[in-house]
Amino acid sequence: MGLLKTVDGAALMSQPLQPVRFVVDTLVAQGLHILAGSPKVGKSWLALWLAVAVAKGERIWNLSTRQGTTLYLCLEDSVLRIQNRLFEITEDAPDSVHFCTECSIIGQGLEEQMEAFLSEHPDTTLVIIDTLQMIRPVHDTTYANDYRDLSVSKRLADKRGIAILLIHHLRKEKAEDVFYRISGTTAISGAVDSSFTLVEEKRGSGRARLTCVGRDIDYRELELRWGENNVWELVSDSREQPEGVEIGMVSLLSDLLKEQSEWIGTPTELSQKIDPDGREGITPKKVSRMIL
User: Fold this and answer.
1) Which is it for strands 124-130 and 194-200: parallel, antiparallel or unpaired?
2) Alpha-carbon distance 64 to 210, whole Å?
3) Helices 284-291/267-274 angle, 10° precision
4) What is 208-251 written as a DSSP string?
5) Tens-of-pLDDT digits for all 292 residues of the chain?
6) Could you tell me if 128 and 55 are in contact, meaning their C-beta atoms sit under 8 angstroms apart?
7) How many angstroms separate the CA atoms of 87 and 81, rounded?
8) Is 258 exposed, middle or buried (0-12, 13-18, 19+ CB in 10 A)?
9) DSSP secondary-structure letter at 63?
10) H or E, element range at 181
11) Residue 240: left (phi > 0), alpha (psi -120 to 50), or beta?
């Protein structure tokens, strides 16, 4: 067995690395994600809209998307139901969104089927599996089994640089932290990169909250309402938009480089040069990260 391959802190903080790519900007990154909600809350409608919007490169709740082929494994629906729902949410579905109502399960052919599709469609950005339970083998619900099942999808998402979204259920019992209501053991939340829960304010109210938490995204809550075209529409978003600092820094850097074509110094010196009184909130750490 070889020696550990390490990188020191100084080198790591100055090394340009490929940033995480988002399929839905600031919300759904490459990796494995879970969307959990109560039965009949509208998870599948949301999944279908996501699959079509990403395939078309359309914005989702004012957020840009990375256009590419999408695959929706709608394993609890018929082709007729998917067709009817498509007519409800869009006037034209592109040929880059694919639907499948039957597939193998984990460990019994699913991985090979997914690899074959991704090889045939290398521009795939998003795969949605509706529902997680439909692709799992029959075994006891234990932490080890939950983690093992989800790790298969996690490895595939990371290997291919795509987003895989698993549709899942919430327990009926109330909990102070809504993520504790995700069905299964805590391995479900531990194995995924992001968790999303869709909870109605009141059954049949047409108002719901999408709560989001993850490794590559900020915690946020989106208030949604059920639209006439069977699409969840955005009412409000708790996330504070950080673009102001970025835009401010680009503007100040532009002004600096108009005066002099070259500037050499540390991040601390640069932040003091372009934002001496700290009014724009441009700290040395933000300078380093944004320029990197």
Assistant:
1) unpaired
2) 18
3) 110
4) EEEEEEESSS--EEEEEEE-TTS-EEEEEE-PPPTHHHHHHHHH
5) 679 999 999 888 888 888 889 999 999 999 999 999 988 899 999 999 999 999 999 999 999 999 999 999 999 999 999 999 999 999 899 999 999 999 999 999 999 999 999 999 999 999 999 999 999 998 888 999 999 999 999 999 999 999 999 999 998 887 778 888 898 888 998 999 999 999 998 888 899 999 999 999 989 999 999 998 899 999 999 986 555 566 677 788 788 888 888 888 888 888 888 888 877 778 887 777 777 7
6) no
7) 10
8) exposed
9) B
10) none
11) beta
Residue 3 DSSP SS3:
coil
Q: Is 210 left (phi over 0), alpha (psi -120 to 50) or beta?
A: beta
Phi, psi of 180 (to 5 degrees): -70, -15
Length reported for the chain: 292
Query: Which long-range contacts does 204-212 make (Cβ < 8 Å, 24+ apart)?
Result: 207/235, 208/41, 208/42, 208/232, 211/178, 211/179, 212/27
Tokens 């909870």 — which residue?
A: 199
Any alpha helices (H) in 6-142, and if so which ranges?
Answer: 9-13, 43-56, 79-89, 110-120
Burial environment of residue 48 by CB neighbours within 10 A (0 to 12, 13 to 18, 19 or more)? buried
Structure tokens at 121: 């469609």
pTM across the whole model: 0.84
Question: What would the two tokens of residue 243 be?
Answer: 């673009």
**Who's near 241: CB < 8 A, 6+ residues apart?**
none
